[in-house]
Amino acid sequence: MSAVRSSxxxxxxxxxxxxxxxxxxxxxxxxxxxLAAMIPEQQERVKALKKEHGHKVIQEVTLxxxxxxxxxxxxxxxxxxxxxxxxxxxxxxxxxxxCQAQLPKAPGGEEPLPxxxxxxxxxxxxxxxxxxxxxxxxxxxxxxxPKFVEELIDRxxxxxxxxxxxxxxxxxxxxxxAFAKAYAKGINKKEYWGPTFEDSMDVIAKLPNIAGRxxxxxxxxxxxxxxxxxxxxxxxxxxxxxxxxxxxxxxLMRLYLTxxxxxxxxxxxxxxxxxxxxxxxxxxxxxxxxxxxxxxxLHGLANQxxxxxxxxxxxxxxxxxxxxxxxxxxWKTLNSGRVVPGxxxxxxRKTDPRYMAQREFALKHLPEDPMFKLVSQVYTIAPGVLxxxxxxxxxxxxxDAHSGVLLQYYGxxxxxxxxxxxxxxxxxxxxxxxxxDRALGMPLERPKSFDTTHWxxxxxxx
Length: 462
Ligand code: CMX
Known about the structure:
Keywords: Transferase
Number of strands: 2
CATH architecture of the domain at 130-297 and 424-440: Orthogonal Bundle
Active site: 299, 345, 400
Bound molecules: carboxymethyldethia coenzyme *A
Protein name: Citrate synthase
Oligomer: single chain
Strand content: under 5%
CATH superfamily of the domain at 130-297 and 424-440: Citrate Synthase, domain 1
GO molecular function: acyltransferase activity, acyl groups converted into alkyl on transfer
Organism: Saitoella complicata (strain BCRC 22490 / CBS 7301 / JCM 7358 / NBRC 10748 / NRRL Y-17804)
């Protein structure tokens, strides 16, 4: 016990945390205390694992994998979540329905609070209600933006894509980075995780004000509601967007921000945050790089593309049409050399449970919405068409096939904006790993590359 206490003291000292050392499984400990207490043990675990098994060969890699986007190469450490091709995502061992059942909810709410998922991703523990309320309050207290960041957003032309504005504003928060300042002063590498935690908490806390301001500037009157310090994160984001009065929309945001957080380490946004972070760039710079990756149409921007595609379909063929008409429309998309947005996945080989969670929400709240009905009809037809088409390894829908239809139902109809909401949530998934990367002293990431001539030489010798 005294060893645990002394390592806890060392970790807290190392993080510059002015907190008391309470035992980490306590349901009253703060998030930073909980984390500080876990770090020494995890450091020892990884050290022992590397010492005993570090030399073992894990898998062989084929040339197809090298030229094929590194699919399936097991080469990353990601503590928060694991994706199974059949089952889908588990966050620290919990499925989405488990999270819906076990994570704390807002008073009167039924969906989990993303604050709870952030806590779970970072610590592997389900927080108490009080811990989640305290985290909501802490994020609300840190939410204000520096004036120059507000002005920067306000000066963006409304024609600049919301994701570009989002990443620009997150990059500008670098000005406030505790990590960058501590590094410049010569911080000991054992202490890196402390300012990384502080920056992560700050940047997450400020995202509703950034995301909301971008939305209000581009699509509304530019007026931004103040953060309500007695409310949770999803309420505050909804309220700034202009939907705070709509309890169902706020519930949707709680679900949305929970399920979009994390999808293990290899997806573009998560991998980017980790890669850029490995150069000891601040959490702000690492996150903004991740957001730039999320803004690609094969990744997060697919939610924007899906709504556009569904709306075009509705405008072309109408609603309440036959399965045959939808089938023809799907073939038209494929034959024009485009992908069916919202379908397929690099890892999943079944319907994405994040799609199912949103479908359950729609069945509960908007079963008669014509757009939801159209999405449901496409769901029954597209897998067959994509299978017949014969290219995609996964003909089933992913998370992006459903989110836009829910948002448009409540009046958030600006599809160009949808990826920003994905980005707010993704921050809650990638920053916990960055904190662990720093706590575990993960090195600069630097895989080996060759030109094609060299690869030819290598494989011909095999
Ligand atoms: N429609 C048509 N063709 C598709 C397809 C789709 N939805 N999904 C995959 N294919 C095609 C690929 O373009 C590829 O074609 P080529 O051989 O001509 O290049 C072929 O099928 C094989 O692809 P795959 O191995 O099954 O899929 P990948 O791992 O390469 O790519 C993904 C995965 C998601 C990029 C792809 O399925 C896709 O483009 N889907 C549509 C866009 C989308 O929904 N993206 C969101 C993913 C979730 C997220 O990250 O947010």
